[in-house]
Amino acid sequence: MKAISRKEEIITTAARLFNEKGYKAVSMRDIATAMDIKAASLYNHINGKQEILSEIILKVAEEFTKGMTNVVAENSSAIKKVEKVIELHIDITVNHSDALAALNNDWMHLEETDLKAFVKMREDYEENFRRIIKQGIEAGEIKPYHPEVILFSILSTLRTLYLWYQKRGKLDVNILKKDMVSVLIKGIV
Amino acid sequence: MKAISRKEEIITTAARLFNEKGYKAVSMRDIATAMDIKAASLYNHINGKQEILSEIILKVAEEFTKGMTNVVAENSSAIKKVEKVIELHIDITVNHSDALAALNNDWMHLEETDLKAFVKMREDYEENFRRIIKQGIEAGEIKPYHPEVILFSILSTLRTLYLWYQKRGKLDVNILKKDMVSVLIKGIV
DNA sequence: AATTCTAACTAACAAGCGTTAGTTTTGTTA
DNA sequence: TAACAAAACTAACGCTTGTTAGTTAGAATT
Asked: What CA–CA distance (Å, rounded) separates B88 from B102?
């Protein structure tokens, strides 16, 4: 029953444009033109440009945080947890690829409060991931490479997945998961 | 004997600022202030903001192209070539990490001619890398995963290496190379 | 039928943008 | 020391930016 509100429409449109040119290169007039209205009309639905950016970024950042919380709470092997993290990234990438562009490239344009919240979430996320990898090494499940190198290698692949997903037409999610898990995991076990 | 020219100084300063906030978020006045001069004075040395961006990006893009050409010309195994590509990325990352931020995030703000040149170089680069991986699979040196997944996985790690390198204080290049080659290669052989 | 709400509009603002023209200072060479 | 070139300066330009104020048309509610 819940129809998409005009506000959500603005945010979706803005995310698409931010993905193409970046937050600073997209004007309120650009967003309005893409919706066939005038820039001033946007302000009937949103409080400003900043609000659009923070809604785009924080919403998806919270999804990552929630997903990671679930993974950490699981009672399973480290490898299984890494697999779950990979699947988490793929699911979010498939559903919010535009938002991920903003999260990756425009987070520094968030203002004070939102910026702090975002940076905190990202640090916590990385720390949780790092701990999973370390536990895997201690348990002998993961090869004893430098944990930071493993973390970085996997995370940078997952973080830029949205670029790849946008380039090759939307492909089957389950196949993507299987291949991704293979390439990223097989190397470290 | 060749002292760094004022023009090079501008480009280096601009690259640093572009790395922090992105091309569109940095004004000519920002660049000038960082050099303790006035914005108009910049135009004694450069033709405009666009020129700064294209010098930053194209110079390092050409370095990649040249490096890849050397690797392709080598008479060695596919795995050895992949290793050489990894080392190429690390060397460039260590010496031009600010420029890599612009190359990754601001390339779309290049104007017509430079944009075309850049996109062409990047496509060729990827195609050369893809071919190396395919040859490796045919020769039985590399596991028969989908080549595109291997390419993407390695390349996205190498492309965001500059972020990692900037975060952890400048670390020993040779150790970095060894660890990186281990993690990225061991998984696919 | 009168009222209220929603969402568009026009017009304008102050600030910041890249850039240009013309001038002055600084440092080197003849 | 006079002449010249390099590199800074001041002042201003036309344009774009995010945003505000006030208004209007149509739909929903009373």
From this structure: 18
B20 in a structural domain: no
pLDDT digits (tens, 9 = 90+) for B76-114: 999 999 999 999 999 999 999 999 999 999 999 999 999
The interface residues of chain A toward chain B in range 48-107, judged by CB-CB distance below 8 A, are 105-106
**Å from the B10 CA to the D6 C1':** 16
Q: How many domains does chain A have?
A: 1
Instruction: Name the nucleotide nearest B37; use CA and C1'.
Output: D8
CA distance B114 to chain A (A): 16
Closest by alpha carbon to A57, among A1, A4, A14, A2? A14
Any idea what the CATH number is for the domain that residue B88 is in? 1.10.357.10
Question: Does residue A99 sit in helix, strand or coil?
Answer: helix
Name the band, by pLDDT with cuts 50, 70 and 90, for residue B2: very low
* Inside any domain, residue A31: no
> Which of A 2-61 have CB under 7 A of nucleic chain C?
5-6, 32, 36-41, 44-45
Q: Containing domain of residue A170, as a range? A: 48-186
Would residue B108 count as lying in a domain?
yes
Give the residue from B20, B21, B49, B17 showing the smallest Cα distance to A22. Answer: B21
Question: A160 and B160 in contact by Cβ < 8 A?
Answer: yes
